[in-house]
Amino acid sequence: MSDGGKTVWDAFHNFGSIGSFRLLAQNEDCVVIRVENETGEGDMIVHQVFDGIYLMYNDFHMSYYDSTFQAAETVLAIDYCREGSLTMECDNGFYQVKNAGSICIDSRVHHKGVARFPTSHFHGITIGFEHEVADRTLKEEISGIPIDLAGIRDKFCGRDGYFIEKENETLRRLFTDLYHVPEKAKQQYFKAKVLELLVCLDAMEKRETNENTYFYKDQVEKTSAAMRLMIEDLSQDYTIDELSSRFEISSTALKTCFKSIYGKPIYTWLKEYRLQKAQEMLIKNSDMSIGDIAFSVGYESAGKFSAAFKKKCGMTPREYRNQPH
After folding, report:
1. 23 forms bridges with which residues in the sheet?
2. N- or C-end of the chain: fewer Cβ atoms within 10 A?
3. What is the mean pLDDT of residues 63-89?
């Protein structure tokens, strides 16, 4: 618990306001917060690891969330995206893009607070530090390991306010380990992982380039519009040139932005989406023939559809339909 008898939630407010929410549960070391709107809901499970240091599991199943977030001036946040993707509208005219496997080291200085989830789901972890309190706590708790929070923040966030790392397997493994926490030693495990993270960041050299982590607002909006057009009628095919011309965006920008937002190249993503919709239709539309389903999701023949479906699912569409669900 934090100094002065504050609850975890009281102390967490120093990190910034998240807007409207429901507090689902609370104990000495943890709070569970739910945000909701017409597109779905999201849960944030916040653990206080040290005073001024928080570890938060994020699970969102919604299209967007307007958090009205206003960060404290000395915040440092490390965000890990496990699944899905997130685009954050920033006050400098850009959209910040996070997708599966990326780790974002962020000062939160540009956040407007509108988080969008293009795939309508996002799972990840945030470890946050509020400098004034965290610095004091670290000096008291681990005086033998010198950690310079301000130095880490300046190194990674000095110019753009954030930095996205996509290649560091050590950091990625550190975060994936946090999904397999021993229940009996949860708080001690969190403390060890937070210290490991800080030591890694302190020693880590920042890469010179930070490409494909932010895009102009109109690029994101046009790319999202192209995606919506493609899934509006899956029986229709569009070339990249057709999409580029229709939405007045270069084909290179469209391909780059799409892969950054949705995690895969356009046609790879679309093929997986078609087969996912086919799976749903095989169960929900039991009176619809396999040939009609194949055509409705964009395959010109039942044979090609069955071959693609079996390659993905390990069984034919008929076998999948006949399974108990």
Report:
1. 33
2. C
3. 81
Q: What is the 3-state secondary structure (H, E, C) of 279-314?
A: HHHHHHCCCCCHHHHHHHCCCCCHHHHHHHHHHHHC
How far apart (Å, rounded) are the C-alpha atoms in residues 290 and 90? 45
The DSSP 8-state label assigned to residue 258 in this structure reads: H
pLDDT band at 302 (very low <50, low <70, confident <90, very high): very high
* Superfamily for domain range 217-322: Homeodomain-like (1.10.10.60)
CA 80-81-84 angle, 5° bins? 170
Residues β-bridged to residue 48: 54
Q: Please state the pTM of the whole predicted model.
A: 0.82
Kindly tell me if the per-residue pLDDT of 22 is higher than 90: no
Strand ranges in the chain using DSSP code E only, listed in sequence order: 16-17, 22-26, 30-37, 40-50, 53-61, 64-66, 70-71, 75-90, 94-99, 103-106, 111-116, 122-130, 162-165, 214-216
* Model pLDDT for residues 221-251, shown as the tens digit of each residue: 999 999 999 999 999 999 999 999 999 999 9
Q: Which residue has the tokens 């919709």?
A: 277
| CATH number listed for the domain at residues 3-203 | 2.60.120.10
**Cβ neighbours of residue 17 closer than 8 Å, sequence gap 6 or more:** 67, 68, 69, 70
